[in-house]
């Protein structure tokens, strides 16, 4: 596009310059010739009265002086053939002048002009002026060089202006293309430059408005899904507790399996809504943990659980999306309610890591891990926790560059330590 604009502007400027410079160059040449011939004619006319009335002795010094002052040759040919001033051949044009005819013609090396002077006592005389080519083209070469320089300067200026204009258009178009690719790739925070030139600015503002509207719609969808999912978790936890209270082990396992399936579907819905929403990869751990702990404290009061909190003041930036951290905290706290009896106390601690990020600890006074259990494997459940929830926590920690640590002997409760690294710069 940039090259095409430069070619178009260059061709247009060249056409204008040719249409302007060529006639002007011809005019300069014509003016130079006319000026030289006019000067010669004036010189000859000034000698006409003298040649018509004076004798040879009077004319000779005057003609010699005129020849010295003129760039060409000035001669006077008398009727008897005598030549005064510059030597001059007795050409056909001179013969024609002696017959009473004034004329001019091209001659080798210049232009020959003869002026017939009639009325002299000895017969007709001729004033001959020869104008050389150098005089006919005096100043033409310099004028043409100036004209060529001016034309080149105009062409260069036109190309420079066209290049700046083309560059701004190309840069704006490239920016629009890049922003479109970013939006297509899921980066809904990308925005085009609304100050782009001409109609590209209108397109950029329209694209930004579209991106903003898409972000709003996705945010509303994500919030609705997340809110619905969080509302569903509480009755799911209650169903799990009811299922574990059943006396029939097979029936309890069947209902618990169904609840686990619904739990996984709800978690998947949250994650899918969060991915479509294009959340940033940074969250304030202090704000998120406080908000989710406040949510679960309501259920803790209903199940007579004592809650111990030790939460550091924020902000505590970590390198994961807010929705990911919310799902992680919900999974850890949901495990406490799902796999410990009512009345079991638990605690939540949040502190700042020395290397940046946050350290989240969730501990309970429940039965802990069963011997030989691998709680980080998806779908494996023990008496103290669920593999599904801990797998979510592990993946969240790994995504930030942190780690998940489990501790606690069987029957002595479970402590889950989640180390989250800070956001990457």
Brief rundown of the structure:
The protein is α+β, with helices and mostly antiparallel strands and 425 residues long. The chain has helices at residues 2-53, 56-69, 92-98, 133-136, 140-184, 198-244, 249-277, 285-302, 322-339, 387-400, and strands at residues 73-77, 83-85, 103-107, 110-117, 125-132, 283-284, 307-311, 317-318, 346-352, 358-364, 403-407, 414-420. The longest helix has 52 residues, at 2-53.
3D structure, described in words:
With 425 residues, the protein is an alpha+beta fold. The protein has three domains: 2-140, Beta-Lactamase (2-Layer Sandwich), CATH 3.30.450; 205-275, Helix Hairpins; 279-425, Heat Shock Protein 90 (2-Layer Sandwich), CATH 3.30.565. It has ten helices and twelve strands. A five-stranded antiparallel β-sheet has the order 2-1-5-4-3, with helices on both faces. Strands 7-9-10-12-11 form a five-stranded mixed β-sheet, with helices on one face. Strands 6-8 form a two-stranded antiparallel ribbon. A hairpin with a 6-residue loop joins strand 11 and strand 12. Helix 5 runs parallel beside helix 6 and helix 6 packs parallel to helix 9. Mean pLDDT is 81; it is low at 376-386. It comes from Pseudonocardia autotrophica. Its EC number is 2.7.13.3. Keywords: ATP-binding, Cell membrane, Hydrolase, Kinase, Magnesium, Manganese, Membrane, Nucleotide-binding, Phosphoprotein, Protein phosphatase, Stress response, Transferase, Transmembrane, Transmembrane helix, Two-component regulatory system, Virulence.
